[in-house]
Amino acid sequence: MQNANEQPNSSENKPVEKWLYVFAESSGHLTSTYGASSSWSLMYNLYPDKLLGFNLVNETIYNNQTSWYSNVTSSAQAFGLPFDSNEATTAKSHWTLFSAGTVTNPKTRDSLVSMIHAAALNQNSFVVFPTTYNTSNGSHLGGPAR
Q1: Which of 17, 95, 128, 144 has the greatest number of beta carbons closer than 10 A?
Q2: Does the pLDDT value for residue 34 go beyond 50?
Q3: 134 forms bridges with which residues in the sheet?
Q4: In angstroms, what CA-CA distances link 1 with 5, 6, 57?
Q5: Which stretch of 28-37, 50-59, 66-75 has the lowest confidence by average pLDDT?
Q6: Which Pfam family, any one of them, does this sequence belong to (predicted)?
Q7: Could you tell me which residue, 77 or 3, shows the higher pLDDT?
């Protein structure tokens, strides 16, 4: 059994890397639906790997995701990226911030964070800042951010 403070060896990383490469194989970014290269989702679930330094995910995956985020943020709605390709106008502030924590380029990270900041400053809706909101007008769709 491995000590919790030790880095996992390369053979333990193989299942994670195989899974990730299957979902990034043809599209250059991680997809949310197997075999659908046009599908995508914010990869917030990679954040613990970065935060805790497990290094289960190859840096190439992070670099590819960062490039992809950089490309899509340039044409994103005023209040951010949708959280998934199936939800074209729905943003999730927490997913976006966790995703921002995984990128390898500070400019891309700052773009993601600034979209959340713009939504938080939005005065069109006088409610507690939501976790889920509309990407184009910032209107509340669900859940207060706590």
Answers
A1: 95
A2: yes
A3: 90
A4: 12, 11, 21
A5: 28-37
A6: GtaA_6_Hairpin
A7: 77
Q: Which CB contacts under 8 angstroms, 24+ apart, belong to 106-112?
A: 107/70, 108/66, 108/69, 108/70, 108/73, 111/69, 111/70, 111/73, 112/69, 112/73, 112/80, 112/81
Asked if residue 13 lies in contact with residue 5, where contact means CB atoms within 8 angstroms, the answer is no
DSSP track, 71-129: HHHTT-BTTB--SBTTBTTEEEHHHHHHHHTT-S-HHHHHHHHHHHHHHHH--SS-SSP
pLDDT in tens, 113-128: 999 999 888 877 667 7
| Nearest Cα residue to 40 out of 17, 60, 23 | 23
The token duo for 97 is 């911030």
CA distance 2 to 142: 42
- 45 secondary structure, DSSP code: G
Tokens of 136: 């184009």
Question: Taking the model in full, what pTM does it have?
Answer: 0.80
Rounded to an integer, the average pLDDT of 51-75 is 89
